[in-house]
Design a protein that fits this description.
The complex is a heterodimer of chains A (about 300) and B (about 300). Helix content of chain A is about 80%, strand content about 0%. Chain A contains 14 helices and no strands. Chain A is globular, with a radius of gyration of 21 Å. Chain B is mainly α and about 300 residues long. Chain B has a single domain (about 1-290), classed as ABC transporter involved in vitamin B12 uptake, BtuC. Chain B has a two-stranded antiparallel sheet. Chain B is globular and about 60 Å long. Classes of the chains: A mainly alpha (about 300), B mainly alpha (about 300). The interface between A and B is large, with 46 and 52 residues.
């Protein structure tokens, strides 16, 4: 068991980190905001945390929290203009934001180390830290779903006009969702920086956006387990296809096309729906049997 | 000096326009962002390169590249979008992004395998370097050919869409697919046409870019995909004349910023511009306000 754990530790760490990032992405999508800004916010969190620890010598725990606060503040600022846009337009605007953050990170070499990034970051984040962080994130997201806030998010996502006509302030709740998501993204930026020794701007670019978004959409956008399942599927399947290691990207791409084509609501949500349908069918049969038993 | 830069920018912009028109065409008609468009562009360059290496003349390689990438684009529509379209608009909006990214990744993986992850070049004599001078401006033969190809293809597509019966069918499906079906238009044939045209244009742009910068590799499409976003938004998502205008503007702006500003800032400026356009004029220069930026889902 321990052997297995050690052999797969990098993969497990990656899964824990990316699950958290996927949950942050899930939170905005849930409130009907099609934002992909999280890559930029994660970059801000990572650079702030690593920079303050490396250059000012502040303790990592403090700088990681500051990274989360920075992510939250920037996403609140971003939400002001984004409230004017919808759908694909929000996605493109936030993608532009990600590109601006990336190119500024490359440009301001004295501050960020330019294209080479920052190196020699102390590794203080272990698998256990990641596990605790993910558990905490899951709890926060779960708790949000149990409250008025979660119900408001659902209402807005399903039909914005109806939600607004029922007195739900779309702008307020979307800003809240955006800020929470940005905070989580910023925090995971810090985790990533203190987990991987070095960070560089290109890590938080278009590929990052694509990876995180595909975890959520492929896993399912409704339940909080969707993003986690999506991350597990997309990270594990290429691993299972080891004999095809050479064709890893090809397998990854084909998985995205096939799973999405056949299960457009995502793996987890489709599974839940299947279980639900089966239960209804069984109850129907039971009711039928009973009524037939009563008849004679 | 400035005029020379503007001229260079205009020619680069023509290629941006070729790339972006296919992108905006698919969005305007199917409301789908085809993120595999960059991979189709790269495929065009690959096909032309391998046909030239195989001893074919360049013009044949160019036509073959357009044909091949057009068919590839049709294949993407068939594999990645057709099933999702039946699942409903919300599933299509999110799902199409994921499936097209997946298709793009798969295509790039194949290209990486074929090219052994190497940067490739056209053979030295493929495009003779001839420089003309007009009124003190230097223009190479390649640049003239690029401009001519871009102009012919753009005019051809516009004439096709707005002057022929087929084009009318395409626009009918864009307006209302159900109504178009009721009057006897076969939507699947329309999808076939638009994706073929879109792919063929991207392939042509790929060959021209491959010739101009003489560097062909499997990720060459990605920067163009990101620039493509800027062009289609600036011009108005779904508007073909808009994409043409915006492509030319972006090309000129890019050469000017590279020439007169610190080079690292080009991307910052271009993408900040994209963000600002979305805020203040989300329907772009020539798009219609009802095109969708403010529409609820």
């Amino acid at each position: 068991m321990l052997q297995l754990f050690i052999a797969y530790q990098p993969l497990i760490d990656l899964f824990l980190l990316h699950s958290g990032l996927a949950l942050a992405q899930y939170l905005v999508l849930r409130a009907g905001v099609f934002s992909v800004a999280n890559a930029g916010l994660t970059a801000i969190g990572a650079y702030l945390a690593a920079g303050l620890t490396l250059k000012a010598g502040w303790p990592p725990a403090l700088t990681m929290v500051l990274g989360a606060v920075a992510g939250m503040l920037v996403s609140m600022l971003l939400s002001l203009p984004l409230a004017r846009l919808r759908g694909v337009y929000q996605a493109i605007a936030t993608l532009a934001f990600v590109q601006v953050v990336l190119s500024l990170n490359v440009y301001s070499e004295s501050l960020t180390g330019g294209a080479m990034g920052m190196n020699g970051i102390p590794k203080v984040v272990s698998t256990w830290t990641l596990l605790i962080a993910l558990a905490g994130t899951l709890y926060i997201v779960w708790a949000i779903n149990q409250t008025r806030l979660g119900r408001a998010f659902d209402a807005i996502r399903q039909d914005e006009t109806v939600a607004a006509s029922l007195g739900t302030s779309v702008r307020y709740y979307q800003t809240v969702a955006f800020a929470l998501s940005g905070g989580i993204a910023g925090f995971y930026g810090g985790l990533e920086a203190f987990h991987s020794y070095s960070i560089e701007p290109s890590r938080f670019g278009f590929e990052f956006v694509v990876a995180i978004l595909s975890y959520v959409v492929l896993g399912g956008r409704r339940s909080i387990w969707g993003p986690v399942v999506g991350t597990a599927v997309l990270l594990a399947l290429p691993e299972l296809a080891r004999p095809l290691a050479e064709y890893r990207t090809l397998v990854y791409g084909l998985i995205m096309v096939l799973v999405m084509g056949y299960l457009p609501r995502g793996v987890y949500d489709t599974f839940v729906e299947y279980l639900y349908r089966r239960r209804i069918a069984r109850m129907d049969r039971a009711a039928m049997a009973q009524s037939q038993g009563d008849a004679p | 000096m400035i005029i020379q830069q503007l001229l260079n920018g205009l020619i680069v912009g023509g290629v941006y326009a070729l790339f972006a028109i296919g992108f905006t065409l698919v969005f305007g008609i199917h409301q789908v962002l085809n993120l595999a468009h960059g991979a189709v562009f790269m495929t065009g360059a690959f096909i032309a390169l391998y046909s030239v290496l195989g001893g074919w003349p360049l013009w044949a390689g160019f036509l073959l590249a357009m044909l091949g990438s057009g068919l590839l684009s049709v294949l993407i529509e068939f594999g990645a979008f057709r099933k999702l379209r039946k699942s409903g608009p919300l599933e299509l909006e999110f799902g199409a992004i994921i499936t097209s990214i997946g298709a793009g990744l798969a295509i790039m993986a194949v290209a990486q395998k074929i090219s052994n992850t190497q940067i490739m070049r056209f053979p030295f004599e493929t495009m003779p370097v001839v420089i003309f001078e007009f009124f003190g401006l230097r223009v190479s033969a390649l640049q003239l050919i690029m401009a001519a190809c871009a102009a012919i293809l753009v005019v051809g597509i516009t004439a096709y869409l707005y002057r022929t019966a087929f084009g009318r069918q395409v626009r009918a499906v864009a307006g209302n697919e159900r109504a178009a079906t009721l009057v006897g238009v076969n939507p699947n044939f329309v999808y076939f046409q638009t994706f073929f045209m879109s792919g063929a244009l991207a392939g042509a742009a790929g060959v021209l870019v491959g010739l101009a910068f003489n560097s062909i590799h499997f990720v060459m499409g990605e920067p163009y995909l990101l620039r493509g976003f800027v062009v289609v938004i600036l011009g108005g998502l779904g508007s073909i004349p808009g994409a043409l205008l915006a492509g030319l503007l972006l090309g000129m702006m890019q050469t000017l910023t590279v020439a007169f500003l610190p080079s690292g800032l080009t991307d910052t400026i271009i993408f900040s511009l994209l963000f600002l356009i979305l805020l203040f004029r989300p329907h772009g220069l020539l798009g219609k306000p009802e095109a969708g930026a403010m529409r609820g889902r």
